[in-house]
Amino acid sequence: MNHNTQPEIITEGDPSSGKKLLLPFILVISLFFLWGMAHNLDSILIPHLKKACNLSNSQSTLIDTSVFLAYFLMAIPAGVLLKRFGYKSTMITGLLAFAFGAFLFVPAANNLSYITFLIALFIIGCGLTLLETSANPYAAILGSPDKAAWRLNLAATFNGLAAPLATIVGRFILSGKSHTKEELAAMTETVRNNYFLTEASTVKTPYIILGTILVLVALLFYFMKLPEVKTMSRDGISQGSFLGALKHKHLRWAVIAQFFYVGAQVCVTSFFIRAAQQAGGFDEYTALYYLGLYGTLFLVGRFVGTALLRYIASNKLLAIYAVICVLLSIIAITGTGVVVVYALGGLGFFMSIMFPTIFALGIDGIGDDTKPGSSWLIMSIVGGAILPYAMGSLIDAYGDNIQIGYSIPLVCYLIILFFGLRGYKIVHK
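RESULT FIELD:
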């Protein structure tokens, strides 16, 4: 069938549409993997570009700021685009923007321009916003409403799969070489610049390959026939507006919880390599290996959490995991040696279900407010732009003490705990 024909309209929760929705769900899963790869590469870029561009801790977190600021700025336009053109067009546009940002890494590396890197990452963030604004609710509503959290966690499992694979790519980005400030100062300007350029150039090939894959996936989506899913509110009234979506109290709390969750995850991941080097005494490649284990635990946590959600209410599992994350954060702050690294690895496991679970609980029962509600939840990802910078500044203020910075994720988990206990509840008027 020609790709320009009108998409089939399927009503949310229609049990007769299960088989029709299987292929679209599989395609959407690929998007979860791709944006997972982007975010996990950021955790490698931060220590790498810190070295290649000679940055402070707070300056290096501008990598996160560029990506997640895009989520905040693009969430409303993404929601408008989603409502106007539908899921398929929004996902294709997101893939192409993502690819364009990836290709910009080549001139950024050639010119050793940190500003160009940040612009490229901002564009990537815009693409990711479009993808997440469309793919998250699309995965949630492709089937029975009571299985929405389970479907989102299943799809998000493939997001987690990107974490260990990104560390394999990281072997081609990180050189394993580093110099102290004194050693850099002792170099001639030519030698020093050549060192910086050599370090920066390692990002080109991985991002060219990534950009090419994204263009190919966009073409696949363009030629595939994907259904539009019609959502209906529980009272049967079709409305839906951006500001009106906030009338749902549980959505408002979900936005707050998601802000602090994303901030916590980005904080933990972005400083993982540096924490493993400082607290664990590891070299760069060994720290990268442990980052891979952290990513693997995140992936395993997604599988385990998805299985547990069949037997445990999603809000209860979220609250249990939040309590464990609080305890692990305390160990990361106060512990010594490799114990700190193990605690951070544990955080990967127990954070794994938080984003999709908060998302599913937030849009539960909001009907035609699902699309604008999704925009609010994507906007809340700006926590990943703000909190890591705060963490980097705190670390700099305490004389490059990475561990003290993990007090910020600790506070985040306490807020998520409240959402899992009370904030998730739907208030019927």
